[in-house]
Design a protein that fits this description.
single chain; four-stranded mixed beta sheet; NagB/RpiA_transferase-like
């Protein structure tokens, strides 16, 4: 396209839009700040997550490793993001973090989907959680990892720090980098078949364990 043709096309577009009606300003009258107490917000999130078939546990820095060990159970292999705090992990499962080959020292970011499909579980942190909708936000931070490691393994253990829980969507969005690759989780992956029977694990983990970390 020549410069003259481009100029003409843009001029025609401007001319066509010249008499268009003015777009009214979108009203923003919804709540942007919660008025609930911290305890009420946490209780609301837990209620929503349980309703969505997630398992919810309350732990502290001293008990979280034991909880993760319990939830991992007999999982042969599990993966963590490269920036995840290994102090939260049970020491006796360190060998099981050898993803595919015990002699393979590659990082989680280098694993292809075929290899991730051989991983039983993933353990991550989270950016923020919205109690109003029961939604956990992952935004690709170092302790959350790339999207694939939370979608391919069948079991996701997600740590949600209590101070990262908010009530409202506007509050949650304010904590997420606008350009980040955001994944929103509301319970384990589920859909319905043609007979409206619930089927879990179709588009992501079949089991979601949420650890509310105080």
């Amino acid at each position: 396209m020549t410069a003259d043709a481009k100029t003409e096309i843009l001029a025609r577009i401007r001319g066509a839009l010249a008499d268009s009606p003015e777009v009214p300003e979108t009203p923003r009258a919804y709540r942007k700040t919660s008025e609930l107490s911290r305890e009420e917000i946490v209780e609301m999130l837990e209620d929503r997550l349980v309703d969505y078939k997630a398992n919810v546990f309350h732990e502290t820095a001293e008990t979280v490793a034991e909880r993760i060990a319990t939830q991992l159970g007999t999982s042969a292999r599990y993966v963590i993001p490269e920036g995840f705090d290994t102090a939260f992990l049970p020491e006796d499962t360190a060998a099981r973090r050898a993803i595919v080959d015990p002699n393979d020292g590659r990082k989680a970011s280098a694993l292809v989907v075929r290899e991730l499909n051989q991983v039983d579980a993933v353990v991550t942190s989270s950016t923020v959680s919205c109690a109003q909708t029961g939604t956990i936000f992952l935004s690709g931070r170092p302790d959350e990892g790339r999207r694939a490691i939370t979608l391919v393994p069948d079991h996701h253990i997600c740590i949600v720090p209590l101070d990262s829980i908010v009530e409202l969507i506007p509050e949650a969005m304010a904590r997420v980098e606008p350009t980040a690759p955001t994944t929103m989780i509301s319970g384990p992956s589920a859909t319905s078949d043609i007979e409206l029977e619930r089927v879990e694990g179709v588009h992501g983990p079949r089991t979601l364990d949420v650890i509310l970390l105080g």
